Amino acid sequence: MDYPNRLEELVQAYENTLLRTALAILRDKASAEDAVYETFLRYLEKRPRLADANHEKAWLLRVTINSCRSCLRARRRHPTTELSEGWYDTYPGTNEEVEVWDAVSALSPKERAAVHLFYYEGYSAEEIAALTGQRPGTVRAQLSRARSRLKTWLS
């Protein structure tokens, strides 16, 4: 398999999906771009043999989520001051959409990841559990807590 050419195809196919997922978790565009870049580097390093496009997408999402987790751990160990208000500053949407993004961004990283993968990427709780290494019940609980918080904040 010609990995550099395959990487180019994967970047074109999944870059936006991976970036949106990383943005939902990290809330910082530069960090999210770094996480996606790291994901594609890992693809070149590991050269995984995956059965089909669904397995490729799942592998890439899993690596992106893990990269985001590493970034969050590093932030906790070495806190810094943010220069911008957040990733949603660049979101071109209506006031209502921005308000929803603000509310989602206030959720915990795990809840943001679950909400993003469930509502924006269309994964089921079982699929999210497989991607994030959690139990399906845990994912459902995160989604339930997130919905409850969002309902409170947005009403």
Blueprint of the fold:
Elements: H1 3-26, H2 29-46, H3 53-77, H4 95-105, H5 109-120, H6 125-132, H7 136-154
Helix pairs in contact: 1-2, 1-3, 1-5, 2-3, 4-7, 5-7, 6-7
Question: Could you characterize the architecture of this molecule?
Answer:
With 155 residues, this protein is mainly α. It has helices at residues 3-26, 29-46, 53-77, 95-105, 109-120, 125-132, 136-154. The longest helix is centred in the middle third of the chain and has 25 residues, at 53-77. The model has no long low-confidence stretch (mean pLDDT 85).
**What is the mean predicted local confidence, pLDDT?**
85
Unreliable stretches (pLDDT < 50, length at least 5) are: none
How does the major sheet shape up?
none
Strand elements, count: 0
DSSP strand (E) fraction?
under 5%
SSE order, one letter for each helix or strand:
HHHHHHH
Q: Which of globular, elongated, flat, extended, rod-shaped describes the shape? A: globular
Helix content: over 70%
Number of helices: 7
Rg, alpha carbons: 16 Å
Main structural class: mainly alpha
The rounded distance between the terminal residues' Cα atoms is 53 Å
